Structures are given as structure tokens and as C-alpha cells.
């Protein structure tokens, strides 16, 4: 394994940071690229760089010759057209810069279930909802989608440079990071912490379909395992894989258990959708007070909670579960309890003084 050199793009995010930790534990030489690649991993080689600055990338990657590239980042924009323009450029620029090095053997791209559900401004609308469980063989939707554009950049570069690829489609990644745009686990931990402090009820914010339907999530650790497995397993090359914990649950079962972990009262679905983005809109000063009172490390609520994204996930008008048969039949057998994914995260956040 010492011969493998990984470049983790987006190393500061939930997926990238957990992946880098696993790679280092398996003796990979590991570089972490981000605008601000802050990390507590001592053996990680940080690379500060802007993926939209191709000339800057050339300089930042001088002397770096990765055998495996793990692309785990994206940039949110106001429209899907702009998402496509920007996020395809992130992938294209990086692979163009690496192309002359002739070192890359495999590129893994992390996207998600918007591949099946459509982009942010479309996937909550009736009429474009696919059948569940979601399967990798389902065709692309007739909608603009930056995930498709990113995939096409990987496919084109693979044909040009001769490397293998894998696409990974997690659902709602649960894991620790700070400053991430899509972070349901920490959002719910912060929400529950404020509820406990104020006596506020832990209110279900989403739809009836999500409350009563079957769902699944993806622990960042199991996603990291699948990324490494696909990169190093020849029969898994040049394929797309769904990736979830391997269990399913109903939020009507899990929500009371999350409330119980914090020792707070909860309110389930009562016929009303109560978006967290509205409920938490004015809670920034309250979180600052909690951070001061309990000596927490991050007083900025916006760097911890992403209620807009949690609302999108929990407000879907469809139950969401994914089929894992494609990777299972090739030998990927990891399993993770989803309840324990949340509990493990809450314990870590408390231990690291992110929540009281």
C-alpha cells in the first residue's frame, strides 16, 4: 500500500476528512487539497489551492504525482446552470493539470442521490420522482444536473489519459466536520442542543412521506471504505455505486431516539411542515451564548448547521432508499447501524466541545 499516493480533493469536508483518515491508517501517502486544508491529521500533506485557478493549481501540485484521485467537493451556486458551469470546471481543471504527469491510475468521484432525484430546484417537485429503491442502472433524468456534468468530465479525462474511475452516490452523509454546506447530523445535534437549553420541543421539520416512509443514510466512514475498496478492486473499476449504511429505518422510529439521546421532548409529524431554516433563522446569537457558557470551540451557528439542506432531505415528498446490490455482488460487505452513526457523531461532537 505504500506505493499508493492519494490526492483527496475537498479534504476539509465530511467525506474528504474521513477518507484522509482512513487512507493514512492504511499507509497511503496522502495529500489533501482544499482552499483552507485545515486538518488535525499529522501525516497529511495539505495543499491550499483554488480549483477554479488552473495556473495556481499547476503551482500547488508541483512535485505531487498521485496514483489515485478522490474528488469529494463541490461549490453551491444560485442556479443549476451556474452549478454545471462551475462544478464541471472544478473537475476538468484538476484533471487537466494532472494529465501531463501520467501518474493517475484511478479517479473516484463522489456525487449523491440528486443523480436520481434531480437538482435542488427540481427534486422536491412532483412529476420527477423515480421509483424506489434507487438503482445505479436507472437512466439520467431529462434535467440539467451538475452531477452529470462532473461525471462527463471524469469519463472524458479517463478516455484521454487511460485511468479507471468509480462514481459513488451516498445519501445524506453523517460525520463530523465544521463549515460544511450539507451536514444533517451536526445540524440536528445543534438544533437538539438549543432545544435542551431552552426547553424548546425537538420538532420534526419535514414531510409525511419522510416521517412514515423508509429511508437510509450514509456514514462518512463507510463511504470512505467504499471509496478505497473501489479504487483498489479491479472488478469495481469503471462503475457507479450507491453507498449507504446497509440498513433502513423510518424517521418516525429514529426521531424519538435522537431526542432521547439528548434527553428532550419531541414532536413528530402533525400535518404541518415546520422548516428548520425558518425555525433556526434567528438562533445565531443564542448559539453564541451557549458557546460562551459551555466553552465551545465554534460560536458561529452558520459554520455548524445547514438547515436549508436538512429541510430539503427531510421535506421530500417521497420515501428514499437505495439499492446496494451492485457493490455487494462484487464483495463490498461493510455495514453500519444508522442509529449508531448519529450517536457516534453526537458523542464525538460533545467530546470535541462542538456541542455542550
TrEMBL record:
<feature type="domain" description="PRISE-like Rossmann-fold">
    <location>
        <begin position="67"/>
        <end position="356"/>
    </location>
</feature>
<dbReference type="Pfam" id="PF22917">
    <property type="entry name" value="PRISE"/>
</dbReference>
<dbReference type="InterPro" id="IPR055222">
    <property type="entry name" value="PRISE-like_Rossmann-fold"/>
</dbReference>
<dbReference type="InterPro" id="IPR036291">
    <property type="entry name" value="NAD(P)-bd_dom_sf"/>
</dbReference>
<protein>
    <submittedName>
        <fullName>SDR family oxidoreductase</fullName>
    </submittedName>
</protein>
Amino acid at each position: 500500500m505504500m506505493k499508493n499516493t492519494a490526492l483527496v480533493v475537498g479534504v476539509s469536508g465530511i467525506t474528504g476528512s474521513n477518507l484522509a483518515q482512513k487512507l493514512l491508517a492504511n499507509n497511503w501517502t496522502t495529500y489533501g487539497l482544499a482552499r483552507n486544508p485545515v486538518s488535525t491529521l499529522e501525516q497529511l500533506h495539505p495543499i491550499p489551492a483554488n480549483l477554479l485557478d488552473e495556473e495556481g493549481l499547476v503551482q500547488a501540485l508541483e512535485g505531487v504525482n498521485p496514483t489515485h484521485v478522490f474528488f469529494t467537493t463541490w461549490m453551491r451556486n444560485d442556479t443549476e446552470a451556474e452549478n454545471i458551469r462551475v462544478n464541471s470546471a472544478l473537475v476538468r481543471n484538476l484533471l487537466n493539470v494532472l494529465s501531463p504527469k501520467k501518474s493517475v491510475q484511478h479517479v473516484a468521484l463522489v456525487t449523491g442521490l440528486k443523480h436520481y432525484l434531480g437538482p435542488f430546484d427540481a427534486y422536491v417537485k412532483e412529476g420527477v420522482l423515480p421509483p424506489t429503491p434507487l438503482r445505479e442502472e436507472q437512466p439520467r433524468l431529462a434535467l440539467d444536473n451538475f452531477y452529470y456534468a462532473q461525471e462527463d468530465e471524469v469519463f472524458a479525462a479517463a478516455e484521454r489519459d487511460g485511468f479507471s474511475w468509480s462514481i459513488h452516490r451516498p445519501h445524506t452523509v453523517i460525520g463530523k466536520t465544521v463549515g460544511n454546506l450539507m451536514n444533517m447530523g451536526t445540524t440536528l445535534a445543534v438544533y437538539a442542543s438549543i432545544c435542551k437549553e431552552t426547553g424548546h420541543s425537538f420538532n420534526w421539520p419535514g414531510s409525511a412521506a419522510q416521517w412514515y416512509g423508509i429511508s437510509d443514510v450514509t456514514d462518512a466512514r463507510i463511504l470512505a471504505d467504499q471509496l478505497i475498496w473501489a479504487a483498489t478492486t479491479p472488478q469495481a473499476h469503471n462503475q457507479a455505486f450507491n453507498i449507504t449504511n446497509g440498513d433502513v429505518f423510518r424517521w418516525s422510529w429514529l426521531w424519538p431516539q435522537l431526542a432521547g439521546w439528548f434527553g428532550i421532548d419531541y414532536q413528530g409529524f402533525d400535518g404541518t411542515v415546520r422548516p428548520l431554516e425558518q425555525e433556526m433563522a434567528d438562533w445565531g446569537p443564542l448559539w453564541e451564548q451557549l458557546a460562551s457558557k459551555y466553552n465551545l470551540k465554534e460560536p458561529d451557528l452558520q459554520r455548524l448547521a445547514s438547515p436549508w439542506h436538512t429541510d430539503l432531505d427531510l421535506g421530500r415528498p417521497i420515501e428514499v432508499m437505495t439499492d446496494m446490490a451492485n457493490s455487494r455482488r462484487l464483495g463490498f460487505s461493510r455495514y453500519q447501524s444508522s442509529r449508531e452513526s448519529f450517536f457516534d457523531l453526537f458523542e464525538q461532537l460533545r467530546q470535541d466541545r462542538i456541542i455542550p
